[in-house]
Amino acid sequence: MRRLIFHLKNCSGAGLFESAARFVPASDADRFTARGRWIAAVLLASTGLMAAEGVALAQASTPPEWTTSSYSPQRDAWQRDETKITAQNVDGLKLLWKLKVDNKTMGMQSFREPLIVSGIETKAGVKTVAILAGSSNDVFVVDADSGELLWEKKLKWASDQPQEAGEGRGFICTNALSANPVITPAGAGERVLYLITTDGYLHLMNPATGEEKQAPVQMLPGVYGKPYGLNLVNGVVFTVTGQGCGGVPNALYAYNTATKKVTMSSPPQGGLWGTAGPAIGTDGTIYFESGDHPYDAKTGQLSTSLQAYTFANDTLTLKDYYTPSNYKWLTQRDLDLNTTPVVFPYKGRDLLIGGGKEGRFFMLDSKSVGGADHQTPLFRSELIANANVNFQTEGTWGSFAAWKDKSGTQWVLAPNGGPTTMKFPTNYGDTPNGGVLAFKVEEKAGKTVMSPAWQSGDMMTAEPPVVANGLVFVLAGGEFTGQTNDVEGGLYSAEQRIKRSIPAKLFVLDAQTGKQLYSSGDQIVSFLHQAGLSVAGGRVIFGTFDGTIYCFGVK
Questions:
Q1: How confident is the model at residue 374 (pLDDT cuts 50, 70, 90)?
Q2: At 400, is the secondary structure helix, strand, or coil?
Q3: Which of 37, 247, 441, 461 is 20 to 30 A from 95, alpha carbon to alpha carbon?
């Protein structure tokens, strides 16, 4: 509703805008619910500005953008505004441009997921730009139409703690920039790019020039803390940290841009390493999953759990949590809950989908995520994957996608590593390396369930999928994800994993059947690690390990 309300403010006066704003949660900015459409219609009728369901006003808004990890604060990866790439023209998808930049890798890290932002007034004119954060505290801003590098900047070390030489320890704590940046959405006033560097400092930047709007803010208590995707709601920037890198506590962190205060949740938890960072519900509740760690609910140590927090008056408060009944076994087998959960509205409340390495999914009701005993989900699937109890290459990693088709059916998509334990109703052969799994959220026998729908063809390390215009865009990242070296003993080094990785491939699938509609073939020459893709305005943009930024699309 953000764009509709913004238009109402301009056309109908502040009073009307304020009335509408009370009905629409700011954190649910891009979702038209039935109630929202009804409210908009009543408001428009009262001012003589009635348009068919209010949609015509939304169409006059800014071009499609991608402003945060997985598209929205709810991390649903559903690009609602894409119209240029369709099922009819997707087989003509082409490599529009590629650009090699001087991005120094750190361990296996290279780029984060791009942002795509329109209306930026650069020295070369008003542009739609792609913004990519590089692993060595670099920022690259590219003309999304031509592939021209508009500006790049290496952010200075701000901490008084010394900067380490080298790439850290192995492939886990690599001293690399690991958090996807975020930018204020269109229509929300001045555009500000927020980016957290490896020294734990948050930078507030002008996306047109790279100029910093104020001195960097120390958001983490130490350096090299490995934060993940920044989220921005109501002027507050959130992130989580994982794997105890740099001795930084694994916690939820918040920076209030109004009060200039930083808040950290307590006590420290197991690794909070869903790559899209925390998800935020339509009511402002903050959700994340935790990995291996001692468990003691009485003291708030909630390893292998999904946790829900509120933020008010610069205070983070645990609201609720869900701990799987087999959490002890999951912890012993290193089967972390390691994803960013996805949140979506369903029949008057938010639902969440989570999961991890185990190969099983759970659905939670935001009103009581784990029931009275904190161990009773709304739905818990059978074992879908990872029959091998493999802690390193199988199960679900990263984040999800959730979208609703024209009939009103709610879908959930998940990347999966390795074969499944069952045949999906629609499938495209064996998947020794994994792929994408699709589920429908349905009502059966009075219960809300996830019903398996389709399974994609085989993909080497599928990154989190993106849904746009009835299509699923997914990168088979090509990364070798093995961790333990059974031949030589110990763990694989980053160098060994890099040598075993293969070039990535871009696939486009029919969102309702999983049928492959497009493959990039051998056009991509390197792999990627937790980089992801972004879709907006007929463009699919991502970066690979070798420092190349790719843009596929239709003209």
A1: very high
A2: coil
A3: 461
